[in-house]
């Protein structure tokens, strides 16, 4: 008569030993922070939240719960921190709280609000990213608060992490156009969910305007008649953000990649220190909008920067 084996076979024994370890690994993987495409702020989203295709952040499948992520100037974090410390009750019923994250101390508020869709819980958090401030805005409708409770949202906010750089390929994939040449610029940055791209030799800390930089994006409008292009280009040039005391020195039609366009050059001052700069704006007119390319360089660096601007311009193609 054969007796039952008292010890499990080796393979089964190995499984018994490894199973808890594998479960722990799977749990750790599930808890890994997720960065929305192009974002430097990430977190471990609550169950049911996935990266949104409509904005930078996360949302549920029915889009009722939203977690919006944005970047603010570096000084914003300090301003909020000082306000929280000097005025502990910013508004009636809203009590700011500190929250420890891997990026350091963050500050958040939670309140009940109401909009056209009904009552919802609203959370906002700011944390320091060093050269920028990360901002998170969470909206949970009243009928979802049992799942997305205050404690659950707080845990999600506490999981926030910062990455210093976003892979270039990840950023370029977000653009509504292809960029074949980056002009040897040191920093490449997708500008949130705007569909615009920043190429720069400088950074946020010193100020981009102190070195050559470019901004590439699409304008939703385009002149309907060729005779309107000059006026359209001039108005767009005068509205370039951050430019002070601008004077247009040249504006004329050009062909860009075989398409009608306009080149405008401006002498101006730019940035917080009123740096003397020369800017070029290229508009390439298309069906539903205009491709807008802006290049800026300190005046004493213009001659070397302009060929780089052109190389980037000539390597941009529609998707």
Short description:
The chain has helices at residues 10-30, 75-86, 150-158, 168-172, 229-238, 302-314; strands at residues 41-42, 50-51, 57-59, 66-73, 97-101, 104-115, 118-128, 132-141, 161-162, 177-179, 187-190, 197-200, 213-219, 243-256, 259-270, 275-285, 290-298, 316-318. By secondary structure, it is an alpha+beta fold.
Q: What is the CATH topology of the largest domain?
A: Protein Transport Mog1p, Chain A
Mean residue pLDDT: 86
Q: Can you name the CATH architecture of the largest domain? A: 3-Layer(aba) Sandwich
The major pleated sheet works out as:
7 strands, antiparallel
Supply the number of structural domains.
2
Termini separation comes to: 76 Å
Poorly predicted sequence stretches spanning 5 or more consecutive residues: 1-30
The chain-level structural class is: alpha+beta
Identify the strand order in the major beta sheet: 2-3-4-8-7-6-5
Coarse shape: elongated
Task: Tell me about this structure.
It is a single chain. By secondary structure, the protein is α+β, with helices and mostly antiparallel strands. The chain folds into 2 domains: 34-162, Protein Transport Mog1p, Chain A; 168-318, Protein Transport Mog1p, Chain A. Helix content is 22%, strand content 38%. It is built from 6 helices and 18 strands. The protein has helices at 10-30, 75-86, 150-158, 168-172, 229-238, 302-314; strands spanning 41-42, 50-51, 57-59, 66-73, 97-101, 104-115, 118-128, 132-141, 161-162, 177-179, 187-190, 197-200, 213-219, 243-256, 259-270, 275-285, 290-298, 316-318. The protein has a 7-stranded antiparallel β-sheet, sandwiched between helices. It has a 7-stranded antiparallel β-sheet with strand order 11-12-13-17-16-15-14, sandwiched between helices. It is elongated. The model is unreliable at 1-30 (pLDDT under 50).
